[in-house]
Amino acid sequence: EIVLTQSPGTLSLSPGERATLSCRASQSISSSYLAWYQQKPGQAPRLLIHDASSRATGIPARFSGGGSGTDFTLTITRLEPEDFAVYYCQHYDSSSPMYTFGQGTKLEIK
Amino acid sequence: QVQLVESGGGVVQPGRSLRLSCVASGFTFSSYGMHWVRQAPGKGLEWLAVISYDGNNEYSADSVKGRFTISRDNSKNTVYMQMNSLRAEDTAVYYCTKGYGVFDYWGQGTLVTVSS
Protein backbone atom coordinates (compact mmCIF):
# COMPACT_ATOMS: atom_id res chain seq x y z
CA GLU A 1 0.00 0.00 0.00
CA ILE A 2 1.35 3.39 -1.01
CA VAL A 3 1.46 6.01 1.73
CA LEU A 4 1.51 9.72 0.92
CA THR A 5 3.20 11.99 3.44
CA GLN A 6 2.62 15.73 3.17
CA SER A 7 4.86 18.40 4.63
CA PRO A 8 4.79 20.68 6.39
CA GLY A 9 1.71 19.98 8.48
CA THR A 10 1.07 23.71 8.77
CA LEU A 11 2.54 26.50 6.66
CA SER A 12 2.24 30.10 7.86
CA LEU A 13 2.70 32.72 5.15
CA SER A 14 1.51 36.19 4.22
CA PRO A 15 -0.53 37.21 1.16
CA GLY A 16 1.75 37.83 -1.80
CA GLU A 17 4.31 35.24 -0.67
CA ARG A 18 5.13 31.98 -2.43
CA ALA A 19 3.96 28.67 -0.99
CA THR A 20 5.59 25.33 -1.67
CA LEU A 21 3.81 22.20 -0.39
CA SER A 22 5.35 18.76 -0.51
CA CYS A 23 3.86 15.29 -1.03
CA ARG A 24 6.15 12.29 -0.72
CA ALA A 25 5.12 8.77 -1.73
CA SER A 26 6.39 5.67 0.07
CA GLN A 27 7.39 4.22 -3.30
CA SER A 28 7.72 5.50 -6.83
CA ILE A 29 4.36 6.29 -8.41
CA SER A 30 3.11 7.30 -11.82
CA SER A 31 2.67 11.04 -12.28
CA SER A 32 -0.46 10.25 -14.24
CA TYR A 33 -2.32 9.53 -11.04
CA LEU A 34 -1.17 12.26 -8.67
CA ALA A 35 -3.62 15.03 -7.87
CA TRP A 36 -3.95 17.99 -5.53
CA TYR A 37 -7.11 19.34 -3.86
CA GLN A 38 -7.98 22.47 -1.92
CA GLN A 39 -10.49 22.41 0.91
CA LYS A 40 -11.88 25.41 2.73
CA PRO A 41 -13.77 25.14 6.04
CA GLY A 42 -17.27 23.77 5.61
CA GLN A 43 -16.76 23.06 1.92
CA ALA A 44 -16.10 20.01 -0.19
CA PRO A 45 -12.62 19.59 -1.63
CA ARG A 46 -11.92 21.11 -5.05
CA LEU A 47 -9.64 19.54 -7.64
CA LEU A 48 -6.69 21.83 -8.42
CA ILE A 49 -4.11 19.70 -10.22
CA HIS A 50 -4.26 16.33 -11.95
CA ASP A 51 -1.55 14.24 -13.62
CA ALA A 52 0.86 15.92 -11.20
CA SER A 53 1.13 19.14 -13.22
CA SER A 54 -2.08 19.83 -15.16
CA ARG A 55 -4.39 22.50 -13.79
CA ALA A 56 -8.04 21.58 -13.55
CA THR A 57 -10.64 23.68 -15.32
CA GLY A 58 -10.90 27.18 -13.94
CA ILE A 59 -7.88 26.96 -11.64
CA PRO A 60 -5.74 30.13 -11.68
CA ALA A 61 -2.26 30.03 -13.18
CA ARG A 62 -0.66 30.87 -9.83
CA PHE A 63 -1.23 27.21 -8.89
CA SER A 64 1.26 24.77 -10.35
CA GLY A 65 2.24 21.18 -9.68
CA GLY A 66 5.42 19.29 -10.34
CA GLY A 67 7.57 16.37 -9.43
CA SER A 68 7.96 12.73 -10.30
CA GLY A 69 8.80 9.38 -8.76
CA THR A 70 8.30 9.83 -5.04
CA ASP A 71 8.46 13.61 -4.63
CA PHE A 72 5.75 16.00 -5.76
CA THR A 73 5.09 19.66 -5.05
CA LEU A 74 2.25 22.13 -5.24
CA THR A 75 3.39 25.72 -5.67
CA ILE A 76 1.28 28.83 -5.27
CA THR A 77 3.31 31.71 -6.67
CA ARG A 78 1.62 34.75 -5.08
CA LEU A 79 -0.79 33.93 -2.28
CA GLU A 80 -4.22 35.50 -2.43
CA PRO A 81 -6.40 35.75 0.71
CA GLU A 82 -8.70 33.04 -0.68
CA ASP A 83 -5.81 30.56 -0.99
CA PHE A 84 -5.55 29.96 2.74
CA ALA A 85 -7.02 26.50 3.16
CA VAL A 86 -6.06 22.85 3.60
CA TYR A 87 -4.41 21.09 0.68
CA TYR A 88 -4.39 17.35 0.03
CA CYS A 89 -2.46 15.24 -2.42
CA GLN A 90 -4.01 12.03 -3.74
CA HIS A 91 -2.82 9.00 -5.66
CA TYR A 92 -4.62 6.31 -7.62
CA ASP A 93 -3.05 2.87 -7.76
CA SER A 94 -4.54 1.32 -10.88
CA SER A 95 -3.20 -2.15 -9.99
CA SER A 96 -5.32 -2.43 -6.82
CA PRO A 97 -7.39 -0.30 -7.52
CA MET A 98 -7.03 1.96 -4.51
CA TYR A 99 -7.14 5.66 -3.88
CA THR A 100 -4.98 7.26 -1.20
CA PHE A 101 -4.86 10.76 0.27
CA GLY A 102 -2.07 12.50 2.09
CA GLN A 103 -2.87 13.78 5.56
CA GLY A 104 -3.08 17.39 4.38
CA THR A 105 -1.17 20.66 4.76
CA LYS A 106 -2.90 23.61 6.37
CA LEU A 107 -1.90 26.90 4.76
CA GLU A 108 -2.62 29.67 7.25
CA ILE A 109 -2.22 33.41 7.26
CA LYS A 110 0.84 34.61 9.13
CA GLN B 1 -23.36 22.10 -14.74
CA VAL B 2 -22.37 19.01 -12.78
CA GLN B 3 -24.25 18.56 -9.53
CA LEU B 4 -23.96 15.82 -6.95
CA VAL B 5 -26.45 15.95 -4.09
CA GLU B 6 -26.06 13.58 -1.15
CA SER B 7 -28.77 12.67 1.33
CA GLY B 8 -29.53 10.10 3.97
CA GLY B 9 -27.20 11.19 6.73
CA GLY B 10 -28.25 11.61 10.33
CA VAL B 11 -27.79 10.28 13.82
CA VAL B 12 -27.74 6.51 14.16
CA GLN B 13 -26.98 4.16 17.03
CA PRO B 14 -23.92 1.91 16.98
CA GLY B 15 -24.61 -1.38 15.24
CA ARG B 16 -27.44 0.02 13.14
CA SER B 17 -27.59 0.61 9.38
CA LEU B 18 -27.96 3.61 7.13
CA ARG B 19 -28.20 4.10 3.38
CA LEU B 20 -26.79 7.19 1.73
CA SER B 21 -27.90 8.40 -1.69
CA CYS B 22 -26.30 10.72 -4.20
CA VAL B 23 -28.29 12.09 -7.13
CA ALA B 24 -26.23 13.27 -10.09
CA SER B 25 -27.04 15.73 -12.85
CA GLY B 26 -25.29 17.74 -15.54
CA PHE B 27 -23.35 14.85 -17.08
CA THR B 28 -23.95 11.40 -18.55
CA PHE B 29 -24.11 9.50 -15.27
CA SER B 30 -24.03 6.06 -16.87
CA SER B 31 -20.61 6.79 -18.40
CA TYR B 32 -18.69 7.47 -15.20
CA GLY B 33 -17.41 5.63 -12.21
CA MET B 34 -18.63 7.02 -8.90
CA HIS B 35 -17.04 7.09 -5.45
CA TRP B 36 -17.71 7.73 -1.81
CA VAL B 37 -15.13 9.58 0.28
CA ARG B 38 -15.50 10.49 3.95
CA GLN B 39 -13.99 12.95 6.36
CA ALA B 40 -14.17 12.49 10.13
CA PRO B 41 -14.51 15.70 12.18
CA GLY B 42 -11.26 17.65 12.05
CA LYS B 43 -9.53 14.89 10.09
CA GLY B 44 -8.38 14.23 6.54
CA LEU B 45 -10.02 12.58 3.57
CA GLU B 46 -10.54 8.84 3.30
CA TRP B 47 -11.57 7.10 0.09
CA LEU B 48 -14.17 4.39 0.75
CA ALA B 49 -15.38 2.80 -2.44
CA VAL B 50 -15.79 3.03 -6.20
CA ILE B 51 -18.33 1.53 -8.58
CA SER B 52 -17.82 1.27 -12.32
CA TYR B 53 -19.97 3.14 -14.82
CA ASP B 54 -22.16 0.07 -15.43
CA GLY B 55 -22.23 -1.16 -11.85
CA ASN B 56 -20.45 -4.41 -12.73
CA ASN B 57 -17.30 -3.70 -10.73
CA GLU B 58 -16.83 -2.27 -7.29
CA TYR B 59 -13.89 -1.89 -4.96
CA SER B 60 -13.71 -0.70 -1.38
CA ALA B 61 -11.18 0.26 1.22
CA ASP B 62 -10.20 -2.37 3.76
CA SER B 63 -11.57 -0.17 6.56
CA VAL B 64 -15.15 -0.68 5.35
CA LYS B 65 -14.97 -3.92 3.40
CA GLY B 66 -17.72 -6.28 4.46
CA ARG B 67 -19.74 -3.54 6.18
CA PHE B 68 -20.29 -0.91 3.47
CA THR B 69 -21.62 -1.63 -0.03
CA ILE B 70 -21.67 0.76 -2.96
CA SER B 71 -24.30 0.40 -5.67
CA ARG B 72 -25.92 2.48 -8.39
CA ASP B 73 -29.11 2.85 -10.38
CA ASN B 74 -28.34 4.42 -13.74
CA SER B 75 -32.06 4.84 -14.48
CA LYS B 76 -32.23 7.20 -11.50
CA ASN B 77 -28.80 8.81 -11.86
CA THR B 78 -28.15 7.74 -8.29
CA VAL B 79 -25.31 6.09 -6.41
CA TYR B 80 -25.83 4.57 -2.98
CA MET B 81 -23.77 3.55 0.02
CA GLN B 82 -25.31 0.93 2.28
CA MET B 83 -23.62 1.13 5.66
CA ASN B 84 -24.13 -1.71 8.13
CA SER B 85 -22.84 -2.39 11.63
CA LEU B 86 -22.02 1.25 12.11
CA ARG B 87 -19.39 2.23 14.67
CA ALA B 88 -18.55 5.47 16.44
CA GLU B 89 -15.48 5.82 14.22
CA ASP B 90 -17.74 5.95 11.14
CA THR B 91 -18.89 9.40 12.24
CA ALA B 92 -17.97 11.67 9.34
CA VAL B 93 -19.13 13.79 6.46
CA TYR B 94 -19.68 11.47 3.50
CA TYR B 95 -19.02 12.86 0.02
CA CYS B 96 -20.09 11.50 -3.31
CA THR B 97 -17.57 12.16 -6.10
CA LYS B 98 -17.03 11.27 -9.73
CA GLY B 99 -13.97 10.51 -11.76
CA TYR B 100 -11.35 8.01 -12.80
CA GLY B 101 -7.98 8.40 -11.14
CA VAL B 102 -8.99 11.77 -9.73
CA PHE B 103 -12.13 13.21 -8.18
CA ASP B 104 -13.18 16.05 -10.45
CA TYR B 105 -16.55 16.90 -8.92
CA TRP B 106 -17.80 16.57 -5.35
CA GLY B 107 -21.14 16.84 -3.62
CA GLN B 108 -21.61 19.02 -0.57
CA GLY B 109 -21.54 16.01 1.74
CA THR B 110 -23.93 14.48 4.23
CA LEU B 111 -23.11 14.11 7.93
CA VAL B 112 -23.40 10.73 9.60
CA THR B 113 -23.17 10.65 13.39
CA VAL B 114 -22.94 7.29 15.10
CA SER B 115 -23.85 7.70 18.72
CA SER B 116 -26.01 6.12 21.37
Any key phrases for this structure?
heterodimer; A: 110 residues; mainly beta; seven-stranded mixed sheet; three-stranded antiparallel sheet; 10 strands; 0% helix; globular; B: 116 residues; four-stranded antiparallel sheet; 50% strand
Write the layout of secondary structure elements.
The complex is a heterodimer of chains A (110) and B (116).
Chain A: E1 4-7, E2 10-13, E3 19-29, E4 34-39, E5 46-50, E6 54-55, E7 63-76, E8 86-93, E9 98-101, E10 105-109
Parallel strand pairs in A: 2-10
Antiparallel strand pairs in A: 1-3, 3-7, 4-5, 4-8, 5-6, 8-9, 8-10
Chain B: E1 3-7, E2 10-12, E3 18-25, E4 34-39, E5 45-51, E6 58-60, E7 68-73, E8 78-83, E9 92-98, E10 105-106, E11 110-114
Percent in helix of chain B: under 10%
- Based on secondary structure, the structural category of chain B is mainly beta
Cα separation of the termini of chain B? 40 Å
**H/E element sequence of chain B:** EEEEEEEEEEE
User: Main beta sheet of chain B: strand number and arrangement?
Assistant: 7 strands, mixed
- What form of chain B results from the Cα inertia axes? globular
Please give the count of helices of chain A.
0
Total beta strand runs of chain A:
10
Relative strand content of chain B: over 45%
Structural class of chain A: mainly beta
Condensed summary:
Chain A has no helices and ten strands. Chain A has 110 residues and is mainly β. The chains are: A mainly beta (110), B mainly beta (116).
Written overview of the protein:
The complex is a heterodimer of chains A (110) and B (116). Chain A is mostly beta strands. Chain A contains no helices and ten strands. Chain A has strands at residues 4-7, 10-13, 19-29, 34-39, 46-50, 54-55, 63-76, 86-93, 98-101, 105-109. In chain A, the strands form two sheets. In chain A, strands 2, 4, 5, 6, 8, 9 and 10 form a seven-stranded mixed beta sheet that branches. Chain A has a three-stranded antiparallel beta sheet with strand order 1-3-7, with no helix packed on it. Chain B has 116 residues and is mainly beta. Chain B has no helices and eleven strands. The relative contact order of chain B is 0.31.
